[in-house]
Amino acid sequence: MRLAAEIAAARAVAGLSRLVGAGAGMTVPGKLLSKLDPGAIDKLAARLPAGAAVVSATNGKTTTSAMTAEILRPRFRLAHNRTGANLVSGVASTLLASGGAELGLLEVDEGALPEVMRRVQPRAVLLGNLFRDQLDRYGELELVAERWRAAVDALPQSTLVVLNADDPQVGSLGTGIHYGLDDPAVARHSLQHAADSKYCIRCGTPYDYAAAYVGHLGDYRCPACGHARPPLQIAARSIELHGLERAAFDLVTPEGTRRVELALPGLYNVYNAVGAAALARALGASLDEVVDGLGRFSAAFGRFERIPVDGKQLLFLLIKNPAGANEAVRTLVEGRPPRIVVVALNDAIADGRDVSWIWDVDFEPLLEGLDRVVAAGDRAAELALRFKYGGLYDAAIEVQPDLARALDSGLELTPDGEELVVLPTYTAMLALQRIVADRGLAKRYWERAA
Amino acid sequence: MTTIRVGHLYPDYLNIYADRGNIAVFARRASWRGHELEVDAIGMDDAIVPGSHDLYYVGGGQDREQFLVAENLAAKAAPLLEAVEGGAALLAVCGGYQLLGRGYRGFHGEDMPGVGLFPLETVAGDTRMIGDVLLETDLGPIAGFENHAGRTRLDPDAQPLGRVVAGFGNDGESGFEGCRVRRAIGTYLHGPLLPRNPHLADWLLAEALAHRSGGEPPELAPLRDELESQARRVSAERAHARGGRR
Prior knowledge:
heterodimer, A: alpha/beta, UDP-N-acetylmuramoyl-L-alanine:D-glutamate ligase, Protein-Tyrosine Phosphatase, Chain A, six-stranded mixed β-sheet, globular, B: alpha/beta, Rossmann fold
């Protein structure tokens, strides 16, 4: 079949998959297309007049690419996989569905990155961070880092590589544009329990941290061999965190320094914003466009989302690994610590079948202020044990594997006018979104305006 | 009230699969029986002094971290063997389990020396054995999660922790999982292991108390372990449904 005919066939499948309610119809046509012509992704990407940029990281890739999209939208028509379909098939679906696009902006799964980079031949690459995540699926952190290094080394000289300097594994991947945070006032006093890359990647000595921001991300230096964070070309300084509401920082670039106001909370979102700024700048955006785009931005699907319901409010914060969950907990506790929380743990492949990571999350500061936690999802009992052995009384723990019932329990306990915090893993989040949507409270994500 | 003294080996390096969950279970279950847990970190620069700890814990690490501690641990072999010979209890999980054998050949062909406590050898294979596991043991059923490239072969006279009901176990072939020597247990199972297998935690606590008192292991007061049993059931169901081997 010729490419045009294959595209028509695959698009028809996308429409059909939406009609039968199989989700956003994002990955089915991509898989079909890859079957019809394995070279199709390469060809589709090559048709983009302004080329493509790829974004990968363990945490924040969806938000970072959505922020980049917001900045670039006035400048380019984008092919952007904004629903987070980030495997090879999802990338194919996105390219397929974006006929008149000028620039590809592709969030890519950490494991799929080498293949996507090889096939799409991006003009720019942003690599954000590597945290331990789903060891059952990705394997050990070192292996992922090695594959990334090989993929970056294979890029032509002309590719712009944007790297988070604050992550020792990522900052050392090449001589690209380095970004990071530069404000010891918001640093943690010590590395968190779940910190991953604590040992010098060259000689194995524990790093000294002048500032540790999120997990092992920070301003590090090896006392033995001197391996240190590379100098920052793009940095955030004078960071202000306003609880669960917003954050602001000075964006320092070679073109000047501007204040950025973010409608998202937390240091991890400052990382996402600085990364997006560095990538958008590499793709030609002006400093004004960067500041305006970040100012316009509101949360990526499901990552941090408020939904009004019967005079109350639901606040969803996705959790998927220790580093990300720690930031969610930290942001909650530094805002108005909730008294009732629903936590939902599933163990499907997309969540990670190994649930041991919940024991590496520092839930304790959250537990201190809680009257009640509803442990939900397929592994609700395991989650309940995490809270029990974390010091919460049995009577404060409700075990409710069924997500709809868990949501009802939480809402019943929430006083009118107040907010119920829900911390779901990925597939639990999708299921909860569907439950809320079926009750007419929110639009399905693929029905929302781009 | 008895203070149970725990020596936690290399907590900064070997902590990949939520090893602190196991420590939390020891601490809570001891305190619910009126005992206290005192946990000392034993790091690179600290010595093992036989008799000074009733229970040792060695967690799992990624290959890199495991490599960083292997030689240091092997240099501490003599006092650790003496401590276990003297009746101290021990739990070693995954990477820690491998390093307490005679040696481990890692994924990149690097040889790591072992302590020689458990009569076994481990060689990394090409594929990882990943999934839920259910064991049948003298201490009751044990459910957990395994994720290891190492193939561990027990010596013919070695005592395994248990038989694999579902999952891979030591090497995916022998049907054995883990190893026992005196009051020491080594296993690939994490999850973490102890929250959903509280009977195993209690066995180790009782043996540690026996080391402390010099007498018999005491009968620990039973606890309401409903959540624990429920979590183990789910884990066991997973092992049956999708464990690597039946």
